[in-house]
Amino acid sequence: LKEKTEDLKRERRLAEDLLHQMLPKSVAKQLRKCQKVEAENYDQVTIFFSDIVGFTSIAASCTPLQVVEMLNNLYICFDTRIESYDVYKVETIGDAYMVVSGLPERNGSRHADEIAKMSLDLVAAVKQVVIPHMPRGRLELRAGIHTGACVAGVVGYKMPRYCLFGDTVNTASRMESTSLPQKIHISSATYEALLTDDAYEIELRGEIEVKGKGKMKTYWLLGNKNYSVQN
Questions:
Q1: Strands 141-155 and 183-187
Q2: For residue 96, what are the β-bridge partners?
Q3: What is the number of other CB atoms lying within 10 angstroms of the CB of residue 7?
Q4: Cα–Cα distance for residue pair 220/78, rounded to 1 Å
Q5: Cβ–Cβ under 8 Å, residues 83 and 39
Q6: Cα(189)–Cα(68) distance, rounded to whole angstroms?
Q7: pLDDT on residue 230
Q8: CB 217 within 8 A of CB 193
Q9: What residue ranges of the chain have pLDDT lower than 70?
């Protein structure tokens, strides 16, 4: 009986760990208690999107197994790196990687700084990711960041997902899609949020046409004056 109890406890811990990988701990706790998880409004968060430059053509030259192996190497690298920052990984869709800071746990005005440091780290880290079937090839990242209000909540019952909604999500995605290889494209809102500490090297990109948004004044995040990227 004692052995069976220990086995049950071990299996329960494994199930809880898996749930915490899929959902924030605070949300998972409510779901385990069969409580309804209410959607919540956040006044200020910072959202990061990235994808792999030329992923479609890279994938076309690979077998499905090679694509999976390549993305697995990339995401293991990224997932390990982001543990150093106060951020929450929302999801991956194909080669797209989405991370947020400021929710589900609010962190005052630190969200932009946490995402900025993380993004510089990931752009540096992607160059070290080996493509097993292309040993001489190197992946390039295209990244975008935006700061603003957001609503977050759990969607679905069979396989619940913690999803983000609002214009901030769309704008962050647009910052990524209009970015360039190995560049971090940030909006004016994120630029202003990062100005408070004067810790970042930022370059004006100028006004660009953004689908669904019209003309937007945007910037390139180049580096941090006080922070060196992990190697």
A1: parallel
A2: 93
A3: 10
A4: 21
A5: no
A6: 36
A7: 47
A8: no
A9: 15-36, 227-231
Whether residue 50 contacts residue 176, with contact meaning beta carbons closer than 8 Å, is answered with: yes
The structure tokens 């004016």 sit at 188
Residues 6+ apart with CB under 8 A from 114: 46, 85, 86, 87, 101, 107
Tokens 């479609």 found at: 56
Report the predicted TM-score, pTM, of the whole model to 2 decimal places.
0.84
Contact indicator for 184, 115 with CB cutoff of 8 Å: no
Q: Is 61 exposed, middle or buried (0-12, 13-18, 19+ CB in 10 A)?
A: exposed
The candidate with the shortest Cα–Cα distance to 41, out of 149, 183, 181, 194, is 149
pLDDT, residue 147, reads 96
Per-residue pLDDT at 34: 61
Q: What is the largest CA-CA distance in the chain?
A: 69
- Nearest C-alpha neighbor of 176 from the set 210, 150, 130: 210
Q: Compute the distance between CA of residue 42 and CA of residue 164 in angstroms, rounded to an integer.
A: 10
Tokens of 105: 């746990």
Ordered by where they begin, the domains of the chain are 1-35 (no CATH), 38-224 (3.30.70.1230)
The single-letter DSSP state of residue 213 is: T
pLDDT for 231: 42
* Rg (the chain; Cα; Å): 19
Under 8 Å between Cβ of 141 and 179: no
Sign of CA pseudo-dihedral 185, 188, 194, 199: positive
> What is the structure's pLDDT at 217?
93
